[in-house]
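Intended use. Records like the one below are meant for learning the mapping from a protein sequence to its folded structure. Do not use them to infer anything beyond what is encoded.
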Amino acid sequence: MAKKQHRKTGKKLSISFWGYYLLAYWSLCTVIYLVTDLFLDLYTTHEFLSVLWFAAILALPLAAYTLYAGRETLFITWYGAVFFSLIVYGLYLGSAYFTVLKLDLLLSAALKSTQNLELPVQQVNRVMARKGGFIYTDVGLSYQGKTIGFEGTRTSYFLLKPYHKLQVNIGQSYLGNDYVTHIELPAHERWAARLAYLKDWFSRYWWLYAAFALWVLFSILKDRFFPAHPAQPKPKNHPYKKKLRIVAVVLVGFFGLIMLILLLAGLLL
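Structure written out for the chain above:
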């Protein structure tokens, strides 16, 4: 009996450990994503096969546990199992890869020196995803005899579009990416760019926030104005339907959090 109880406790501790590990992982990815845009004005993210292999190995146990934890909901059909396995592993692979690249940029910016140079601006363009809208700013600077495409926040577009030359502090990371720690521009121009970005953001996505607010309001007022008839027995909730509702709530909450993070990240300069 004691041995059985010990096994159960060990299993709970193991699941709890992995749950906290996943939470710590996603928290770390989010912090690194935000801190990169907070401390670096511009940077490159060249592709590195060695980093991709490292990310692929790191993503395996994370994806495996996520799929194991959600197996009763995700593995209802064989094609669902294949689809969700690919999606979950792809999410972890992409997040691990870009987190390693951005961590390299942050460590390099903290430990390595930079040069103060005046660089010609070749282009400042919005980068649009097919169904994701405006995702980041592509800034082309002439550096070391060639034009290098830097990635900036969405606010960078409104800040840098009028300029043909920029005075910057620029350096190179340990992995070989370039980064700009500071662009010498007045503070009031940065605030004007943030305001322009907010206006642009809400003009594109106001309906999402309105729909989310209406859904929350309906959920709060539904039981008050449309109560269940007391004479009628409440139908028993099927476990499958209950799990689907939990998944729906989690997805809506996750979507709302992502939208908030994206909005705040775009304001960073």
